[in-house]
Amino acid sequence: MPDDLSVIFLALADPTRRAVIARLGQGPASVSELARPFDMGLPSFMKHIRLLENSGMIRTRKAGRTRTCLIDGPGLSNAERWLVEQRRIWEAQADRLEAFVMLEQKEEGNDP
Hints:
By secondary structure, the chain is of the alpha+beta class. The protein has a domain at 4-73: Winged helix-like DNA-binding domain superfamily/Winged helix DNA-binding domain (Arc Repressor Mutant, subunit A). It contains five helices and three strands; from the N terminus they run ααβααββα.
């Protein structure tokens, strides 16, 4: 069974799903409104919606015949926390590399 982050990043790997998330960042929207810009049938579009919903990034509610989608924070928050941690790790590595290069240059007499 895939972990939560794998499901989130799988959902974000598709440009259609990223566009849906971007649109929902402006507020809730019906499935038909979200599907309008895309050249695909509603059944195909619903697969994208289900994947986003299963990833925990959106939720849907149905009122009559209209299904409305809205952002559901936990999925995106999990991805953001992971990305922030990765950035911290890479910045620390870059800082250590810079310190190493500066020390090497100083020892060689090429003090910048």
